[in-house]
Design a protein that fits this description.
Order of helices and strands of chain B: HHHEHEEHHE
Number of domains of chain A: 1
Helix content of chain A: over 70%
Number of helices of chain B: 6
Strand content of chain B: 5-15%
Mean pLDDT of chain B: 81
Helix content of chain B: 55-70%
Oligomer: heterodimer
Low-confidence stretches of chain B: 158-174
Order of helices and strands of chain A: HHH
Low-confidence stretches of chain A: 103-111
Number of strands of chain A: 0
Number of domains of chain B: 2
Strand content of chain A: under 5%
Largest interface: A-B, 42 and 36 residues
Shape of chain A: elongated
Structural class of chain A: mainly alpha
Radius of gyration of chain B: 20 Å
Largest sheet of chain B: 4 strands, antiparallel
Distance between the termini of chain A: 51 Å
Mean pLDDT of chain A: 84
Radius of gyration of chain A: 18 Å
Strand order of the largest sheet of chain B: 2-3-1-4
Number of strands of chain B: 4
Number of helices of chain A: 3
Largest sheet of chain A: none
C-alpha cells in the first residue's frame, strides 16, 4: 500500500478516534439525556464514518471496500432511527429536557 | 411491477458484491434467493414506492453529498461545544413544520435532522416535528429551513427544482 494511502488512513482514523473520544466526553459532561444524545450523534456519524473511510483506503478496490461501504450506509440509516426511538421513549416516559443557557459549572441533575 | 424488478436486481447485485464468486452454482443460488425474497416481499405487500423508492434515486445523489457536508460542519460545532471548558450549550425545543407531502419525505427529513449532531427529532405528529437543539448554531441552521427545502425538492423530482417553495414557518419555545 502506497505512502499516500497510509497518510490518508492515519489522518482519518486519528480524527475519527478523537471525535469518538470527544463524543464519550460529551456523554459525561452534558447535563441530561436529550443533550447526551447529541454527543452519541458525533460518534455515530463522523466518528464511525472517518474510521471506516480510513479502513477503506487500506482495503483498496476489493470486496472488503464494498462491505465497509455497506456498513456505513446501514449505520447512517439505523442510527437516527434508534436515536429517535430513544428520544421518543424518554419523552413518553415523562422526562423533560433541560432548556436554556448552561454555564457548565452547574452540576448535572441526577434524574 | 417496476419496483419488484428493481428490488430483485438490487438484491442480486448485493449478492454478487458480497460473494464475489462467479460460479454457475452460486449465481443460480443468488438468482433463486432474489426471486424468493421478492416473492415474500410481494406477499407481505411491502413493494411500493415507499418501501423501495426508485423515484428518488437521481435526486438522492445530489442531496447526500450536501447532507454529509452539513454533518461534518455540525460535528465540529458540537465537538467544540463539548470540549470548551465553559461548554456553551443552549438546549431548547423547536417546533417546525415539515414541507414534505408524504411520509417517506418526512422520514428522510426527520432522519436527516437526527443524523446532524446538535439536532434530534424527538417527536413527530403529521408534518409537525419537535426538535431538540443543543447549540444556538444548530438551532439557527435548522430555522433557516434549508434542509427542509432540499428534502422537498428531492421528493418532487419531477417538478422544477428552481422553485424551492415557501420557507417553513418556525415558532420558538423558550
Amino acid at each position: 500500500m502506497s505512502l499516500a494511502a497510509d497518510i490518508v488512513t492515519w489522518t482519518c482514523i486519528i480524527t475519527g478516534s478523537a471525535l469518538a473520544l470527544i463524543g464519550a466526553l460529551g456523554m459525561i459532561r452534558l447535563p441530561d439525556t436529550f443533550a447526551r444524545m447529541h454527543a452519541a450523534g458525533i460518534i455515530d456519524t463522523l466518528g464511525v464514518g472517518l474510521i471506516l473511510v480510513g479502513l477503506i483506503f487500506q482495503a483498496g478496490w476489493s470486496a472488503v471496500t464494498i462491505k465497509l461501504l455497506l456498513i456505513l450506509v446501514f449505520i447512517f440509516i439505523t442510527s437516527p432511527t434508534a436515536t429517535h426511538a430513544l428520544a421518543q421513549a424518554a419523552l413518553n416516559g415523562g422526562l423533560k429536557p433541560l432548556l436554556g443557557k448552561k454555564d457548565g459549572k452547574e452540576k448535572p441533575s441526577k434524574t | 411491477m417496476p419496483h419488484a424488478l428493481s428490488l430483485g436486481l438490487v438484491l442480486f447485485v448485493v449478492w454478487l458484491l458480497l460473494s464475489g464468486i462467479f460460479e454457475p452454482l452460486l449465481l443460480g443460488l443468488g438468482v433463486a434467493s432474489s426471486i424468493v425474497v421478492v416473492y415474500i416481499a410481494h406477499r407481505m405487500d411491502v413493494i411500493d414506492r415507499e418501501g423501495h423508492p426508485i423515484h428518488l434515486t437521481p435526486r438522492t445523489l445530489l442531496y447526500f453529498p450536501w447532507l454529509v457536508w452539513e454533518i461534518v460542519k455540525a460535528n465540529f460545532d458540537v465537538a467544540l461545544a463539548i470540549v470548551r471548558p465553559a461548554m456553551p450549550i443552549e438546549p431548547r425545543l423547536l417546533h417546525i413544520k415539515a414541507g414534505q407531502k408524504d411520509d417517506l419525505g418526512r422520514v428522510i427529513y426527520a432522519n436527516s435532522i437526527t443524523l446532524t449532531p446538535g439536532t434530534v427529532t424527538i417527536a413527530t405528529e403529521g408534518s409537525a416535528f419537535t426538535i431538540h437543539a443543543l447549540t444556538r448554531g444548530a438551532a439557527e441552521g435548522l430555522e433557516s429551513g434549508d434542509m427542509d427545502r432540499r428534502v422537498t425538492a428531492m421528493e418532487d423530482a419531477k417538478m422544477d427544482a428552481s422553485d424551492p417553495g415557501p420557507a417553513p414557518s418556525v415558532e420558538k419555545e423558550e
